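User: Can you predict the 3D structure for this chain?
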Amino acid sequence: MADKLRILLADDHETVREGLRMILNAQPDMQVVATAGDGREAVDETARVAPDVVIMDISMPGLNGLAATAQLAERCPGAKVITLTRHADSTYLQQLLRAGAAGYVLKQSRPAELLHAIRTVATGNKYLDASMAGPVLGNYAKATAPGAEPAAPLSPRETEVLRLIAWGNTNKEIAARLDLSVKTVEAHKANGMRKLGMRGRIDIVRYALLQGWLNES
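Assistant: Here is the predicted structure, written as structure tokens:
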């Protein structure tokens, strides 16, 4: 069979680390090659063993998971980081995506969710916990349900603006990049969000993940 995915576990609770190690090592295509109890150790161990995937807790002593993820993006760009957290919060998600995380999984989800995330990010894709993506998918399902008004397609400019927003750009930065006024950018953003039934930036990020926009460099 093909080589197993080499995984590093970073969590400050030993019981959590050992539980995850047992689950992952039971998979025919995965192997835990190292563990870490804090963010600094996670960065050092990743540099030492070069895993394919790092499972990273957010709340750890010393260097937290967000800062460790940002450091790994610089020092070990080949390692794909999956954040494993209890926080179903848009602020955490956006900050971690900007820091370089490839996946976001909730600790309260079933183990199968994490296994799916590992296999997904290992192929170069992004992964968002299904419980967080659900509301957005629900909006799309309603928009395409029998008898529903067909949603107007996004214009190329609306798509471009929403894509840049998902990458963390401000309206001012997008205006400068696309040679538009800030008001025009705001109008394209509002129109695109209205067409897709979105209420805020987090919905844009979720949609971008589902569309594969964040896979692009």
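Confidence is low (pLDDT under 50) at residues 135-141. The chain has two domains: 5-128, 133-215.
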